[in-house]
Amino acid sequence: MTKGPHQVAPDHSQHDGQGKISTSSGLKVHGFENEMISLEKMLKRRQSEDEFKAIAIVGGLGVGKSTLCRALLNKNEVKTSFLPRIWVRMPKIEKSEAEKSEAEKIKAEKSDAEKIQAEKSDAEKIQAEKEAVVKRMLECLGVDEKIIQSISVKDDRRALDDKERLNALLYALYLQLNGKKYLIVLDNVWNGDDWYRDLSAAINRSYDWNERLAYGLPKGNGGTVIVTSRNKEVAKMMVGKEENIHDLLPLWNQESCWSIFTDTVERENQVLNLKDEEDLKNAKKDLFKKCGGLPLAAKMMGKTMAEKIKKDEEEAAKQEALKTGKH
Fold first, then answer.
1. In sequence order, which residues have a C-beta less than 8 Å from that of residue 186 and are 6 or more positions away?
2. Quick one: where's region Disordered (predicted)?
């Protein structure tokens, strides 16, 4: 038994001509109007209506990759063109340089037997991560958890080995998507493993299903995958040509950053009281300098300001109560 296909936020997005995108939920995405136009063109740039398409949005932490992608998925044209539409948050498995250095140091100190065991453990983790990604995709498509678990078991109730299990999961994914013009977002991809390489690759009889994630993604019905990543090399490995990659840079417009900031304050049910024109101008300039054009930073600063306003109001009310003798 399966549930209905998972949908991404029931918002209807539209441009308002001021460099922001409004949604029916009242949320506004600021500063991405040109990026939205560029991504829409990338989605349409294919040799035929049925051609598979893989594109990537690449940028640093907090630059707005996921926000831009959600706004794109909530556009009416996208919603009517693609079904199902699913959002898959990818597991973080990339290690920092410091972590890699420490791991190499520990590895060098191990015996040969310990090294073999460590390599086996790493291989098991990689296998588990691959399975987790496919299972997550099946869950987002509405496949019941019990059915997903049953895929890992043979008819005689014996557990499948690693290769067979991943084969079965990817084949199940293929069957769920086959014949559909799907849109899948793989959000925050880190892993540069060959298993993620060339999402446009199609399965044939000489390949095993488990060899690539791409083989679980049917080709020929206009299906699309959008990858978001901080690592351009990983993104390029997955989507191919440079023309399929959109580099997302920090916002250059301080008005957009200010709008993100004030929207966040208002969503926390607080009011920012800056009536003096010079104070407002300086506040915008200061915010832009501090957030560096990063939407996430502007949002976090808005939350911090809302908390400060709330605390100040509570303290003022407390002081007023003390003055009037109320407790």
1. 88, 90, 225, 226, 227, 228
2. 1-27
- Residue 129 CB partners (closer than 8 Å, separation 6+): 91, 93, 191
Does 170 reside within a domain?
yes
Q: How far apart are CA 274 and CA 280, in angstroms?
A: 6
Residues 148, 217, single domain; the answer is yes
d(CA 318, CA 311): 10
- CB neighbourhood size of 147 (10 A): 12
Full DSSP string of 129-195: HHHHHHHHHHHHTTB-HHHHHHTTB-TTSPBP-HHHHHHHHHHHHHHHHTTSB-EEEEEEE----GG
Give the model's pLDDT for residue 114: 53
Q: For residue 8, is it within any domain?
A: no
Task: Name the domain count of the chain.
Answer: 2
pLDDT along the chain (327 residues), means of 10: 42 39 55 88 88 95 91 89 92 58 60 55 78 92 90 68 86 95 94 90 80 93 95 94 92 90 86 80 92 92 91 85 71
Q: At what angle do helices 277-291 and 254-267 cross, to 10 degrees?
A: 100
Answer positive or negative: Cα dihedral of 10, 139, 188, 305: positive
Helix (H, G, I), strand (E, B) or coil at 315: helix
Same domain? For 223 and 262 the reply is no
Co-location of 298 and 202 in the same domain: no
Distance of CA 212 to the CA centre of its chain: 20
Which residues are within 8 A (CB) of 235 and not within 5 positions of it... i.e. 6 or more apart? 56, 58, 189, 227, 229, 245
